[in-house]
Amino acid sequence: MRWVRDTCVVRAVASSGAGFLLAVMWFDLMFDVQLLSGHDQRRSEEVLTSIGQYYRRVTTDARPMNRLVALGMLVTLAAIITELARGAAPAWGWWVSLALAAVLGLAGWRTVPSAVRLGSNVGTAEERLTLARGILRDHLVCLGCVAALLGVLLGGT
After folding, report:
1. What pTM does this model have?
2. Interatomic CA distance for residues 95 and 101, integer angstroms
3. pLDDT score of 3 more than 50
């Protein structure tokens, strides 16, 4: 595994993984932002149905392709940890990268299970609205962290 010894290659792998995750979040946010428009009760149900159907498709119906997102997360984290273990310079950049990438745990721990529940269309409208708002909030936090991660990685860590 000679390529692992080349910091530029490992940085490219980490950047590619982070870029892929950024694109996934962008697609998710295209549905999530429907929550931001003012709407009445009837429109709220339409918005929740639209968002729920999207999350059902990408979290449940898309198997096994939905595993690609988890793979992207793991590859990104593995590349960063590889550089830290190697003692790549500058170390501060890789530690910052690891801290920013750690927010991906939020997705695995909270966002994905919430999206699966929302996609199942179970619960009251208020419960589904709470789930959808939480997913939107999580995606905005993750978007900021992954964008910053890309900035650090592409800036040369």
Report:
1. 0.85
2. 10
3. no
